[in-house]
Amino acid sequence: MKDSGPSRLGTVEVFCVAAKAQSFTAAATSLGTTPSAISKAVQRLENRLGLTSVNKMSSSVFASR
Predict the structure, then answer these.
(1) What Pfam families does the entry give (predicted)?
(2) What is the pLDDT of residues 16-63, one digit of tens each?
């Protein structure tokens, strides 16, 4: 994994990249990591905040309102 991956970024930053890309796969490519690592980072953020931050629809993700 590159230095810019989720282990180097906070969960909010990872969420922002995923929301902007509307895809965990695209976010993973951008950050040099795996879609699974992106998903886990977003799940950690959701658990910490006690809410659902993204709507997952097939291969796309969208920020919740």
Answers:
(1) HTH_1
(2) 999 899 899 999 999 999 999 999 998 898 888 888 866 765 556 666
In Å, how far from its chain's centre is CA 12?
Answer: 8
Give me the domains of the chain, ranges plus CATH numbers.
11-63 (1.10.10.10)
Helix locations, 4-50, DSSP H: 11-21, 24-31, 35-49
The CA-CA-CA angle for residues 20, 43, 50, to 5°, reads: 105
55 phi, psi to nearest 5 deg: -100, 120
DSSP secondary structure letter of residue 20: H
- Enumerate residues 6+ apart whose C-beta is below 8 A from 64: 51, 52, 53, 54, 55
Q: What token pair was written down for 9? A: 């970024």
